[in-house]
Structure formats: structure tokens, C-alpha cells
């Protein structure tokens, strides 16, 4: 058996996927044939990853990027090839490839909702309820090593985050991270990545001096990527 994950699948691979999705839809009214236009669009835009067994497509993942966040649209393995570890291999190799392309986080919403347990087995977790106020189940997984929380009282250079809008410094921050840069660079040794509402407050602080404090959507775009995350990968001194 020859098993591979392809990041540039052929038209033949797409046609094989289309065929078994249609068969699944006809036999059980399940699967993602109803989304075949989205899958084909991903293939045309080179955003379709396929796992093949003996060069025949048995699973796929459709995605798109938003800054350094990869959004997983659809993922499925052919019904008679499930529970053999193929989905795990497809996702693990896809995540490694995303990181090489510069992605830091993967996110998705569960459709169907029953897929939540599958994604959680792959290391995804729920967004906090206060960030995404929708009935759909949103999950995320951080793909890289990240900075640890800072819990000491020393006044050093920090990024601080509140889970509220706090312009007047009325309450202490809920999360803090020490800024640790690579030698002679502004780039951090490990990025700061945390789920975040765009209305939460973020501060860059050096000692007792607050260099900048704003709600996340207005925080310097060099320091974060927006969306549902605070992402800090480099910071001017």
C-alpha cells in the first residue's frame, strides 16, 4: 500500500473525490457533495489537500488563509476508508505544511456538529463563549510553540490582555506575557497567541510605562493579526 498526502492534487484526484461524495450522498444523504462547488473552487485555487492510497484519492481537506490563521472549510475521508488512521495522517501532515507556509493557528466551525469530538481528538479546543456569540461550534488549535503566561510581579516588558474594554486601568489584566526577543532582532523567540475579542483591551508595557493600550482591533497591526486572536510575533523596542 502506497499512502501519500498531496498538496497539488490532479484533476483526476478531484474527480475521484467528486465520485465518492456523490455515491455517499445518494446512498445515505450524508457527506459533503452538497458543497462540491466549494471543494472544486478550492481545487482551482490550489487550496485542496488530498490523501491518496495507491494514487487514488480517499480523503481531502479544503482551506483558506487569513493572515497567519488557516481556516479549515471541509475535511472528509471516504466512508469505507474511515477508522484506519488516514484522517489523522492527513491532518498532521497538513498542519506541518501550514506551519512551513507561515500559519500559526488553525480554526474551523463544526459541520455537522457531531464532528466536534473528532476535531477535539486532533487537539482542537472551543473558543471562549464571550468571543464568538454564535450557535455554531467554533474550535481552534495553535500549531506552533508559544510564549508562556507571565505570573510574576516584576515590572519588565510585557504584553497584557484584558477580557473587557478597560481604558481607565480599572482592573488588572487577566493575562500577561514577557517579551523575549531573538538576539538583536524585534522578532519574539516564541509568539504570543491567545483567543481574543476585538473589543478586549491590549497593552504593551515596559516597566511602569504603558507604551500603548487600545482595544484589540485598533492595536498596532504590526503586533497582531486580528480575527479571533491576539497574535504578537514581533515588537519594536
TrEMBL record:
Pfam families referenced in this protein's UniProt entry, alphabetically: Acetyltransf_1
The UniProt record lists the keyword ATP-binding: no
Gene Ontology molecular function terms on file: acyltransferase activity, transferring groups other than amino-acyl groups
Source superkingdom: Bacteria
InterPro entries noted in UniProt: Acyl_CoA_acyltransferase, GNAT_dom
SUPFAM superfamilies associated with the record: Acyl-CoA N-acyltransferases (Nat) (SSF55729)
N-acetyltransferase domain: residues covered: 4-145
Keywords: Transferase
Protein name as annotated: GNAT family N-acetyltransferase
Species of origin: Maribellus comscasis
Amino acid at each position: 500500500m502506497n499512502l501519500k498526502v498531496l498538496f497539488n492534487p490532479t484533476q483526476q484526484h478531484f474527480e475521484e473525490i467528486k465520485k465518492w461524495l456523490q455515491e455517499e450522498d445518494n446512498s445515505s444523504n450524508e457527506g459533503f457533495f452538497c458543497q462540491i462547488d466549494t471543494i472544486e473552487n478550492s481545487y482551482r485555487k490550489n487550496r485542496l489537500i488530498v490523501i491518496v492510497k495507491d494514487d487514488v484519492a480517499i480523503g481531502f481537506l479544503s482551506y483558506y488563509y487569513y493572515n497567519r490563521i488557516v481556516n479549515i472549510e471541509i475535511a472528509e475521508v471516504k466512508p469505507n476508508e474511515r477508522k484506519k488512521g488516514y484522517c489523522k495522517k492527513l491532518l498532521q501532515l497538513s498542519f506541518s505544511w501550514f506551519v512551513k507556509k507561515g500559519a500559526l493557528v488553525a480554526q474551523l466551525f463544526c459541520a455537522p456538529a457531531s464532528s466536534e469530538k473528532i476535531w477535539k481528538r486532533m487537539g482542537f479546543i472551543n473558543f471562549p463563549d464571550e468571543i464568538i456569540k454564535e450557535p455554531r461550534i467554533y474550535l481552534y488549535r495553535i500549531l506552533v510553540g508559544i510564549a508562556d503566561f507571565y505570573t510574576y510581579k516584576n515590572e519588565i516588558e510585557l504584553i497584557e490582555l484584558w477580557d473587557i474594554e478597560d481604558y481607565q486601568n480599572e482592573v488588572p489584566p487577566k493575562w500577561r506575557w514577557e517579551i523575549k526577543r531573538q538576539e538583536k532582532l524585534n522578532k519574539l523567540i516564541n509568539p504570543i497567541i491567545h483567543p481574543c475579542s476585538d473589543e478586549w483591551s491590549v497593552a504593551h508595557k515596559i516597566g511602569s510605562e504603558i507604551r500603548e493600550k487600545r482595544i484589540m482591533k485598533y492595536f498596532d497591526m504590526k503586533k497582531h493579526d486580528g480575527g479571533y486572536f491576539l497574535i504578537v510575533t514581533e515588537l519594536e523596542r
